[in-house]
Design goal:
Layout: H1 2-13, E1 20-21, H2 23-32, H3 40-50, E2 58-59, H4 60-69
Helix pairs in contact: 1-4
Length: 70
């Protein structure tokens, strides 16, 4: 069940459906939800923390790891 809930959340961020979340998709979701947009520096830092393989995108496994850590 935990994985299903996380998969639903992941798909909200994965706007283009490619199975990965990039910085622009994350920023769109955060601004769509009325959350104040994070500065580019903060977004870059967040991506570095979550994007374990350093490809500039967050795949579902990285997303799940982040969710388990919180």
């Amino acid at each position: 069940m935990e994985k299903d809930v996380c998969w639903q959340a992941f798909r909200i961020f994965d706007r283009n459906g490619d199975g990965k979340i990039d910085k622009s998709e994350m920023a769109k979701v955060l601004s769509d939800d009325g959350v104040a947009a994070t500065a580019n520096k903060d977004m870059a830092e967040l991506m570095l923390q979550i994007d374990k393989n350093g490809d500039g995108e967050i795949d579902f496994e990285e997303f799940m790891e982040m969710m388990r850590a919180t």
